[in-house]
């Protein structure tokens, strides 16, 4: 049996080529990830808003697989309209699910992970353009986080994030002045980053939080799992 403990449903933007592979690598024994794709062709905030309108139909497909929790696996899609818009997104997803089914969004998972680790001062790495970068900084600051440093790959098109070299995010993050930082956050579920986490933590002495790592962390906690997943940072090693 593939899902002795729980089956997790993933709502994934259609152009994302990274998130599923990260989840398959990170999931502990007894947990299964089932994904469905919601159409996203890029286009910044407007394109993300169109994608978000499809979450109910995507969730209705996951329901047929008997999922025990649902993750909305898109950082920018969950922060573009701020915390209030994110709550509406969660409500749209929840409308298709049994009442007690946990629903997790990536942006909220990052915030929750940082607060769980008593972190407030962060450096942020993204692949986004200026419009989404500004919205993400606003989102984190509205959650009480202080974005001290910022760097972007400025990939131009959303699909290009998934085509980045594994070291792209690592090379940006390692250059930060770390004197007043509590952690480094690497944003975007379509940006290869999980292999950089341990390297960065050892090199910088700071916790490193990535979109897929944090989302899995919160999904597992919501499902009552406790344990340790070494090799992918302090969050999964020491905080489950």
Automatic annotation (TrEMBL):
Pfam families: Amdase (PF17645). InterPro entries: Iso_Racemase_Enz_sf (IPR053714), MaiA/AMDase (IPR026286). Gene3D superfamilies: 3.40.50.12500. Transmembrane segments: none annotated. This is Aspartate/glutamate racemase family protein. It comes from Microbacterium croceum. The lineage of its organism: Bacteria, Bacillati, Actinomycetota, Actinomycetes, Micrococcales.
